[in-house]
Amino acid sequence: MDAKREVKIIPLASSKGTEKLCELCQREARLQCGKCQVTYYCDAEHQQADWVGIHERICQLLIPIRTPTLLSLKQAGRIEMQLKKLCPQSAQVELIEICRLVAQSKLSERKHLEALPAAQFCLRCSTDVYGPSTVQLVPPYLLLAEANMGLGNLPLVTELLSQAEWAVLKSPECGHAVHHRLHRSLGRLHTATGNLEAALVNFGNDIFFASEEYGLDSTVTCGGYFLMADVFAKQGKLPIVRSLYSQVAHTWHRHLTKLLKTHVQYIQNPNMLLQASYDKAQRVEVDEMLRTMLEFEQNGSRKDSTQIALVAHCLAMLWFLAGDSVKALGFGSTALQASQLIPNHDLTEPIQCLLQLVPGLRTDPHPGSD
């Protein structure tokens, strides 16, 4: 049964002095969630958007937080001690983490509109727990900014990132990871608005802070190189683009090769512990990046067979690990054809070994895949 039929909504009886506000837009509410009965909406469209976006995941978790008892305690100024008893901070922190993960997953799948409710609630709950203008608000600010960036709402993105910058400036002790994510978002905003030099500066800072946090050879760090390459492509500096793409491809190739080795060892020894590789949202993001690099080489005037083989092999490994034999075979064949154009290419044998594994894929999905 789909989400529309599962959720129940009921009209909200108006009561003077106790006006309820819509969960999404903060306008006057006319509907109430029929399950938790503590969440309100201006219309069925906003109710459905919130249900799909996040409410289905947290509906029952909201009941102890939004009960009239807590509201009355808050109004009476006696919330601090009682809140810890009736609704411990850990419950709100759990809600923040759930919303953050849901929003990030939807953003990875490019579902920007569906990500908004989770990101909005994450910010609202983080403000309640940590207070305004604190560094803990930066992650939800960035999630909201990315969602609105995908929807083309650049003025709001600018405002959200300004709030995030201010919170970081007030917290000089905040870590490299926060700086990395902030500069990456700022770089994306400047790219979208055409301020390419500012974008390059921010992506440079992104790479620096990401390398400090995760290492220079990390797949997180190389995401900054990929975004920087996009800026250079807009400037027509194709040799730099090609160089950056090569660095990204080599990083991902090393990472996926390690995952593949672990996967093959698991097939040979099913009793060993196998960690999940990538969920659906992460695969969408990595697949999009690798396909962009592959198309750049295939459509360019100077086709680099070595780079084509490298990137196509990455895509073949990615989809082999996801259990998709059709895509694994398709990209594996592309990789093999490119590698065979170069005598004694060191990727030919690994690509052939992968293609030999593909027909033996299990019919059940790989752990961590959908």
Automatic annotation (TrEMBL):
Domain of life: Eukaryota
Alphabetized InterPro entries for the sequence: Zinc_finger_MYND_domain, Znf_MYND
Key word Transmembrane present: no
Domain MYND-type: 22-59
Residue ranges that the Swiss-Prot or TrEMBL entry lists as coiled coil: none
GO molecular function: zinc ion binding
RNA-binding keyword on record: no
Keywords of this entry: Metal-binding, Zinc, Zinc-finger
PANTHER family registered for this protein in UniProt: ZINC FINGER MYND DOMAIN-CONTAINING PROTEIN 12 (PTHR46533)
Protein's UniProt name: MYND-type domain-containing protein
Organism: Anabas testudineus (Climbing perch)
Encoding gene, per UniProt annotation: ZMYND12
